[in-house]
Design goal:
- It is built from eleven helices and seven strands.
- The protein is of the alpha/beta class.
- The chain folds into two domains: 7-118, Roll (CBS-domain), CATH 3.10.580; 151-322, SLC41 divalent cation transporters, integral membrane domain (Tetracycline Repressor, domain 2), CATH 1.10.357.20.
Length: 323
Amino acid sequence: MFPDNSAGALMTPEFICILTGTRARDALQIVRDAGLDSDAIYTLFVTDINRKLLGIMDIRRLLFAEGDEPVETLMQPHPQSVRIDADQQEAARLVRRYDLISLPVVDENGVLAGVIGVDSIVDVIVEENTEDFEKMNALLPSEDSYLNTSAWTLSRHRIPWLLVLMLSSVLAGKLIQGFEDVLAATGVALVASMPMLMDTGGNCGSQTSTVIIRALSLGELKPGDVLKALWKELRVAVVCGFLLGAINFARLAIFGGASLPIAGAISAAMVLTVIFAKALGCLLPLLAEKMHLDPAVMAGPLLTTIVDVGSLLILFELSQIAI
């Protein structure tokens, strides 16, 4: 009846609905007559005669209320709710953000259709986190457990992104071939710095993308906040980049046997790579969210591919200037 992964597919019809105007003593009798399990009576839902959601009420508040007190004075008006056709991630975001034990589900007219319990939300959070983890590590999501998944299925899920990453390595190799004269002129110092530079860039990008994706999933960040997020990450990148660059310059000049111009070029490449990687790690997930794509895909293999090639290009261009 409802699409998979929608709030409607998660909701249950087992909830207690109290009509506005009902007195506290009568509401308690409704709870007794309902005979639902204990999970269903923690939160009561106040509606009008057309079942339009008006508020929610904690069962403890009702237990200690005066018998003649109307439920309107006991309820919390304008409660958090989710549309019946909303994605399950939106429901999970609301439950986490507002510490809810149940979330009302309404239709386009605000009519109460069902309730999502916190146990269902926990399952969604585990499922979504597992899926994001797999995507960020270049895996296609699997619905079955590891031991119940065949080796062929696992291989099929891993091969596509492995091919993408292999092609990125081919691009990096072609880039190195195009700068053979620079490598010959600079010696071993430049070659030895390439893995460090690529790994540092990948780590910086992954740090930023993880923070951005988490902020997106919690509703703390929206695609419209791109300039604020980018400005914050650029400041972080400048601090981290210059600190790492200074340490790297001292290492190369004192222990690495590199000339000062080459040590300066490699260290400057470190600074620019950190800034580039952190900016990309910030922008790609936000761009994916704006385009209604999964940010986790952007944060994993695609980010690694671009940062690897970009860091090498920065290194070779600066080294060419230095010699």
